Amino acid sequence: MGLGWSLDLSEKLILTNTKISIMKNYSTKKLQGFSIFLLVLSTFGLAQYPNSLLTVDGKSLKDDCGETIILKGLNHGNIYDVSDFGVGEIAEIEKTGSNAVRLVVDREYCTFPPPNYTCVEVPTTAAQLTTMIEATLANNMIPIVELHDFTGSANPMADLTTAANWWVQPEILHVLKTHQKYLILNIANEPSSSNYPPTAGEQTTYYEANVAAINILRNAGLDCPIMIDGMHWGKDHRFFVNHGADLMAADPLHKLIFSVHTYWPAGGNAVQVSDAQMTQYMTALASVNAPIVLGEIAHDETQGNNVVPINYELLLTLSAQYNFGYLIWWWGRIEPGSTSPLYITTNGLAANLTADGQVFINTHPNAVSTTSIRPYKLINGECDGMSIDENQEIEMISIYPNPFKDVLNIDSKVNVLNVEIYGADGKKLIQSKEKSINTQHLSGGIYFVRIQTDKGIETFKIIKK
């Protein structure tokens, strides 16, 4: 194959979709040679990788079962937690019901070796990236990996190309391809320091820079959805309104997600956005025929030493209205002494949310814990066989009370054939044909009720007190 080496394997080589095995016994020397062979298979794209199960259908992100996924979850600074790369916090984020975590990655990260305990930067490895991704998947959430090196770039053409090339270097590419069934790749965080609003020329340059980066990733064989950040440190929505359709068309797989970082305070000394403007911007984004995510939504913006409040509750309300996803900036760390005014936990634990964290996670009508739905197939490995029929008229069935305590009632204008209640982990807990269901034995938490009628199947998210 022109690889510049040869390997003598006299034994019969058997290749399947999931493994490679050698018949008969072989020596240690041949084992070492075989390891090199496997590495070359991976490096040159000959190894078997799973295809992405995520697709883009108009404004919706879907899996191969047809289930619509609205991304709702957290940003998490994994790369800054060198003790375990954020694995402990990911397990805590899972408790919120989030279905996605945006993982902050840098090409290099700080270690603090003795005796001086000052920052010594070392390259981020494929093994560390694997740790972050697999911890997220193990907790039934979708990993969104992003490269943070080029925040506020003054040269997006050069920097997005550099970012894309980092993702496709052999060892990193192998990690992405191995996990791309449920993976989203955010090429680079906020790679634009454009004017606000950006000029037409700046928008053209940013479009061309993203197209170049997309082509690098697709030519390397990545078929997962790609997330693109807005201009001007992610804050600008206009680029997607003006160029979103062309950008989607430029992706050979048409699998893009557009992300706006809504640091839109009404005051302060940077971008200022009134409630009326906020509503206008969100309505404009709703006209874009692509999945929209508020890739960073926060309760405040830090401007130097100042902390400026954002009307994030209005953003959450508008997100629900337009079916936008959102990812909260950011979770917080378990490590003692780690602080940030934008953390939504006091110590990285789900039990210790801040006041704003409580709103984001629990109390707002569009809160994570009550509206985030994890894909059934992500949890169970197969389609549920009872897909939600989005064309059914939801008003034909009502569930009450919700939240409920000991009894769940169903009021239906059509004939109810079967009722099933599932836990958040996808396990079926109750099956009934009654319209009044005893739930005393269920513990407090989030559940899903699937109701089969003579008109179809509907699924509702329910909460037990």
Describe the structure using short key phrases.
3 domains; signal; four-stranded antiparallel β-sheet; alpha/beta; 12 helices; TIM Barrel; 25% strand; globular; eight-stranded parallel beta barrel; disordered N terminus; single chain; 465 residues; Immunoglobulin-like
Spans where pLDDT lies below 50 across 5 or more residues: 1-38, 40-45, 387-394
Largest sheet: 8 strands, parallel, barrel
Number of strands: 24
Structural class of the helices, strands and pairings?
A: alpha/beta
Q: How far is the N terminus from the C terminus? A: 63 Å
Major beta sheet, strand line-up: 6-7-10-11-12-13-14-17
Question: What's the number of helices?
Answer: 12
CATH topology of the largest domain: TIM Barrel
What oligomerization state is this entry in? single chain
Rg calc: 24 Å
Briefly, what CATH class of the largest domain?
Answer: Alpha Beta
- Within CATH, the superfamily of the largest domain carries the name Glycosidases
Number of domains: 3
CATH architecture of the largest domain: Alpha-Beta Barrel
The coarse silhouette is globular
GO biological process, one term: glucan catabolic process
Domain Secretion system C-terminal sorting: 399-463
Protein name: Mannan endo-1,4-beta-mannosidase
Domain Glycoside hydrolase family: 90-332
Describe the structure.
This protein has 465 residues and is of the alpha/beta class. The protein folds into three domains: 1-48, no CATH class; 54-380, TIM Barrel (Alpha-Beta Barrel), CATH 3.20.20; 394-464, Sandwich (Immunoglobulin-like). Helices cover 28% and strands 25% of the residues. The chain is built from twelve helices and 24 strands. The protein has an eight-stranded parallel barrel with strand order 6-7-10-11-12-13-14-17, surrounded by four helices. A four-stranded antiparallel sheet has the order 21-20-23-24. The protein has a three-stranded antiparallel sheet with strand order 3-4-5, with no helix packed on it. α3 packs parallel to α5, α4 (156-167) packs parallel to α6 and α6 runs parallel beside α7 (238-250). It is globular.
